[in-house]
Sequence to fold (304 residues):
Amino acid sequence: MMLVRSCVLAVLVGLCRISPAAAQSDPSVGVLLLAHGGQPQWNERVTALAAVVDRAQPTEVAFGMASRASIQAAIDRLATRGVTRVVAVPLFVSSYSSVITSTEYLLGLRDVAPPDLALFAKMSHSSHDAGDAGRSAHEPLADPMAPLPVRLPIRMTAALNDHPLIGLVVADRARSISTSPSNEAVILVAHGPVPDDENRRWLEDMSRLARQVMAAAPFASVDYMTVRDDAGPAIREAATTELRSKVAQQRALGRRVLVVPHLLSFGGIEQGLRKRLEGLDYTMTAQGLMPDERLAQWVLASIR
Fold:
């Protein structure tokens, strides 16, 4: 087991040592970095990540949840920089969500619009939607649900999912609050989607991340789950019961419990986790996946 763990870590560390400056640069390929958007600190971290990737490849950020105007504006900026191809990279925890499928539709990579696109189109993306900034007052607003008139070849990569570099970051977050791994139980907790089939695929990826965490340190156990905050009350309550049960079971075994929120950045969801865990004994990590220089490595690895 120790030999397998050492081999896995050797391969992953080798991946990590590739720096943006050392990556092969092709200025004809532009990176469209897709990000949820949120509080200023979160947006600044995404912008900083884009700046690092931009040293190797022309990169522009589109904030918002399938925001047509924001995506169009970012593509237009890439076009003015002379790119001839675009790779869209979703800076999201999972590929399995309606935000991703809605974005695919807007980019012309999917034939049928997901039902949730209508919900996203009604959202306010005021601070991010620069796509109509140059529109004449006499021109009609673009349909937020219409596919973009993309004039450049474009493809879209997977989200973070279970990428080995992400496994390394998750493992480091767990180790940052660890004192005696052999007597500690790690619980990875993600937001998760509403549909059961998408949630199943989130959990499949998380199971592989859990194995990477276990390979990085000899924890007593590494468990995982989603809390599905956007689902109905029954599903949310069941998730709360499951989370509390996991913590209580490990404490009954005399183990210290390490809760690792599988989030790109803290900004509210972790507060909900603390509320769900009131009265229980556990230790939570101090940050999400960002900031971390390996996210830039992940973007570059994705476009290759």
About this structure: The longest helix spans residues 196-216.
